[in-house]
Design a protein that fits this description.
two-stranded antiparallel sheet; about 60% strand; mainly beta; globular; about 425 residues
């Protein structure tokens, strides 16, 4: 009898775990953009990813940046694969791999990885784990529009490799915590945009709380980034022709809170988001940081530029859809005084921009899986004057990196977009 029981126990231990196969769904779309601008713009991806208008460039008495320009491209057509239904015992795994055509370098579109992640959950468990590259928790809720930049730089825009835990608390409440690695969207610094400032520091960390029911979705969250802009630095305190180079372990730690709200009823949806970003250029915001002091112990104290960015957007309709966004951003200055005009800002747009707003009324016709949309985009940006400072643009700023109100001017761009998209 003992032998029989022992054998039964061994058989139970060796019994195979139940496995269910995966289900696959291929999806994607072909998308075309026809755009026209009233002046030269700072933009990426064949000028489709629009940041800001360019400032005046006076030559022989006229502004060479003022003038009509247009382009027609089929970039960002997308292909993706969703995997669902796989189970190993109590554990379920889903995944997504998504790519599109993009200008990574040169003028030939490249098929680039957009998202690649897996999501694990367990039966009767309140938490799930997401591993891989997907939307930053602050960027996942986009404003209503059909343009490529999706609200940037008034809305955080970032997809990053991450390990994210979502915990359901019941009653519509949940918590999100994520460790992220900066990859496609990089911070700026002394050597331009680079991963090096981040990979020799600490992981980016996000923590947030969420609430959702049939009508409302709300999020509040906090993002923390640690950068090491200089790994080595010439010791400026030592006299002589050859000052020593010392190891610098100084970190810049930034904290960026945000709030998001969404209301949905029938064919109507309203969204609003606001973020107070510190050095938020890795989220495609017009921000940055600078040097506050060179300390006697060889360390460097950094100070982040604080940037306020917000949007409100709305959409109504299904077959005929009317939508639009209002966005506003403003530089609020660094948290501490700068030294020696050492300030690094997001070079995706003109670094002298102090504030900007955007409005994007849009109408779309959704005919099954075929969509045609027309958008009017008006963007106004306030630039600081640097003529008196010569070639050193930072020299015209005050100790917090700001320009005097009397030394600023506005530039306006009018953009018209026609988009066609077939989804499959």
């Amino acid at each position: 009898m003992a032998a029989l029981l022992t054998g039964s126990a061994a058989f139970a231990q060796d019994a195979p775990v139940e496995e269910k196969p995966s289900h696959f769904k291929l999806y994607g779309f072909v998308r075309n953009y026809l755009t026209a601008d009233s002046r030269a713009v700072k933009a990426g991806t064949e000028d489709m990813y629009f940041y800001m208008p360019q400032d005046k460039e006076m030559s022989k008495g006229f502004d060479s940046n003022d003038g009509f320009n247009w382009r027609f491209v089929s970039l960002t057509s997308r292909l993706g694969l969703d995997v669902s239904g796989y189970k190993w015992g109590r554990m379920g795994i889903g995944a997504k791999v998504e790519a599109d055509f993009y200008y990574l370098s040169g003028s030939v579109p490249t098929f680039r990885l957009r998202q690649a992640f897996m999501k694990l959950d367990w039966d009767n468990s309140r938490w799930s784990l997401t591993l891989g590259q997907t939307w930053h928790p602050m960027a996942v809720d986009l404003p209503h529009m059909n343009n490529l930049e999706s609200g940037a730089p008034f809305n955080p825009f970032n997809r990053s490799p991450q390990a994210r835990v979502d915990l359901s608390l019941g009653g519509g409440f949940s918590l999100t915590a994520s460790l992220l690695y900066l990859n496609h969207y990089l911070p700026t610094g002394p050597d331009g945009k680079s991963k090096d400032y981040f990979k020799y520091g600490l992981p980016e960390f996000y923590f947030g709380a969420n609430f959702q029911n049939a009508y409302f979705l709300a999020r509040v969250g906090l993002d923390m980034v640690n950068l090491r802009p200089y790994r080595t630095h010439a010791d400026w305190r030592v006299a002589g022709d050859n000052p020593p180079t010392i190891e610098v372990k100084s970190l810049l730690t930034t904290v960026s809170p945000f709030v998001f709200f969404q209301y949905t009823k029938g064919k109507f949806q309203l969204r609003a988001k606001s973020i107070l970003a510190q050095a938020g250029e890795h989220m495609n915001l017009l921000s940055g940081y600078g040097v506050h002091s060179y300390n006697n112990d060889g360390t460097i104290t950094y100070t982040p530029m604080q940037t306020w960015a917000s949007f409100v957007s709305a959409s109504y309709g299904k077959k005929v859809q009317v939508m639009g966004m209002l966005g506003y951003m403003q530089q609020l200055g660094t948290t501490q005084d700068l030294v020696d005009n050492q300030l690094w800002l997001n070079t995706a747009a003109d670094t002298r921009i102090q504030q900007a707003f955007r409005a994007t009324p849009t109408i779309a016709w959704n005919l099954g899986k075929f969509t045609v949309s027309l958008e009017y985009n008006i963007t106004a940006a306030q630039f600081g004057n640097t003529t008196a400072a010569g070639f050193n643009a930072n020299a015209a700023r005050d100790l917090r990196g700001m320009f005097k109100p009397a030394e600023m001017h506005w530039i306006v761009n009018h953009r018209f977009i026609c988009m066609t998209k077939f989804t499959f």
